[in-house]
Every structure is written in C-alpha cells, then in structure tokens.
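Escalated from tier 1: inosinic acid holo job.
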Amino acid sequence: MIRLHDLQFVPFIAEDSITVAIEELSVVLNQDLKNKNPLFIGVLNGAFMFTSEILKRFKYDCEVSFVKLSSYQGTQTTHQVRELIGLDVEVSDRTVVVLEDIIDTGNTIEVLSRIIKEKGCKELKIATLFFKSAAYTKQINIDYFGIEIPDRFIVGYGLDYDGLGRNLTEVYQLKSNSMTNLVLFGPPGAGKGTQAEVLKQKYDLIHISTGDVFRYNIKNATALGTLAKSYIDKGQLVPDKVTIDMLNAEVDKNPDAKGFIFDGFPRTEAQADSLAELLVSKGSEVSAMVALEVDDEVLVQRLLERGKTSGRPDDADEGVIRNRIKVYYDETAILKNYYQKQDKYFGVDGVGGIEEITERLSQVIDKL
Ligand code: IMP
Ligand code: MG
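Tier 2 regenerated the structure:
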C-alpha cells in the first residue's frame, strides 16, 4: 500500500503486465503503420511514459509531438476539457496516432479528435494504454488499447493523483474502502475458533473458514464443490485455483462486508499471492496476519484435557497432538515470513482468559 497526499492506493497492475500489453500493442502498430510515417501525438502529462515506450518499439519512420489538455481535478472529472496547448506540427494529409495514457469518459479524446480532424489529417487513430470501457460514453472508435480496466481511479505509469504518482512503474488503484481483512492463525488448541467467533461479532466481519467452505460446496454439490471432490476422491490435493474460486464466491456473497477473517487459508506462498490478488480485485488487501501464540506444553495439556470429553481421537494421543503442532509450525513459518516482509505479521499471546486474549487481539486490529 502507498499513500499519495490524503489517499491510500493498493497495487493493481504489475509492471510486467503493462510491458506485455505495450509489446502486444507495438506489434499491431508496427503492422498497421509501417510505411505511413505516422505522427504520434502524446497527450501530456499522463502519456509521456507510454509515448516513450511505444516510440522505442516502433521500427519504421515516424515523428512525435505532444499536446496538453486537461479535464481532471483531483479524482473527479470536471467534464470540461480545457484548452489544447501545442500541436505545432503540420497534420494535413498525415496519419496521426494519438497516444493517451487513459481514456475514461472520453471527453478529452472527443475534443482532441475534433481539433485534429479540423486540421485536415488524412487518417486519425486513437491508442490508449488504459481504457475504462464501462465509463466511456462517446461514439469515437478506440482503435488500440493496452489494458481494459474497471471504472476505478488509478495512478502510476504516468498517471497522477494531484501531481503525485506519475513516476511509479506499476499501477495502483485507490483503496476503495477501509476493509479489515485478517488472516487468522493459531496452533491446534490455541482457541482460534473461539476468538474468530468473538472478533466476527465485535468488528462485524465475515468469518471464512476454508474447511467450512469446502464442506458447504461439496454437500450442496456446487460446480466447484463437485470439482473439488473429484480431486479429493482421487486422493489428490485440490488445486489452489479451485480453492480460491470458492473463496472468491464467498467474498462476492458479501459485497458490503466490512472485512473478512480468513481461517485455514492461505497455507502456502502461492496461496497468499492468490489471496492478495483476490482482494486487490475488490480494491482491498490483507490487513494483517494475526497468530495466536501458545507454548507447546500448554497446548498439549489443553488438548489432552479436551480429549477426555470431546471424544476426538486426535485429541487423545500425545504423539498425534505433538505432530499436529509441528505441522502447524512448519506451515506457518513460511507465511509468517511472507507477511513479516510486508510488516503485516502480528503474534498475539494466546494464554489467558477469552476476554483477555480478545483484548490483546483488539489492540492489534484497532491500529490497522
Ligand atoms: P476522460 O476525458 O474522461 O476520458 O479522461 C481523460 C483524462 O482524465 C486522462 O487523460 C487523465 O488525465 C484523466 N484520468 C482519467 N482517469 C484517470 C485515473 O484513473 N487516474 C488518473 N487520471 C485519470
Ligand atoms: Mg491525460
């Protein structure tokens, strides 16, 4: 997450993906425009980076010029395109290619197209790196675009928020709300289930237990549940893609949620990456990994005690218990490291009364 002026932004499109889109676009531009000596017109300020990347990849004769227009203040369009500055080049009888960083409502491109056409160009093409197709209200055909994006405010790769962010080499989107998304961990017997229940009430969060989600989907024979079961029946691991699709469906069921508690997921770095992607697509992110910490000996005693009444066979045998605890630490170590690198790991002392532990967890959550 980054902050520009008063707003927070979360990573949205990686530099690699932008480069791939530009490469693909360049192949088409080279094909369509070779031998036409096109005049590329970059729209300042936003399109300076995109213009440079396109020019570097164009292999035939071409020229470049810049114009400047403005229609935005802050994160809102003013619907009024201000005066065009520049266009000091002769465009009559030329193939002109406008290079835009982003096309949103289309106000800017409409005005710009009109001005250029009035000057008598032979052919006018429009190329934009980012295209908010859902926000676009105009008739003018957008000949080329790099990446179609939803109607969200973005910064980076030339685009700014009140002057800042143009130098970022990847694209960030405005953090849509202040969701609290927790990844909850705790060794067997640490009281994770109890605390998840309390936190869910206290912070009005949705508790997504991966185990429950699996059981629900399989029991109700949803498409994903049936798919998951086909792997389980063969004794294979359910692919991450299937699990993340199920979680995505759960998240989508709660579009107005204040946040989620993820329980039992992620278990690997790849899964943590997928979860990050899922939340980014909702304009959010993982706020914290919170892990209850309880000494092994205390856990063993607690579980043996529980085993006397619960009847769970895995609670009765000390060897089995110790192994479950070991498996937990083996798995958790990777994720602890993953979230620590992002300053998102919080270990919380899990020994004490239920309320006392909730209080400790709250101290972490309230600061997020
Ligand atoms: P339009 O006139 O609504 O199509 O908007 C075009 C101009 O608005 C772009 O050239 C940008 O300067 C600006 N703009 C639109 N969307 C964004 C955004 O998400 N981030 C930053 N600038 C934007
Ligand atoms: Mg612009």
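The chain has a mean pLDDT of 91.
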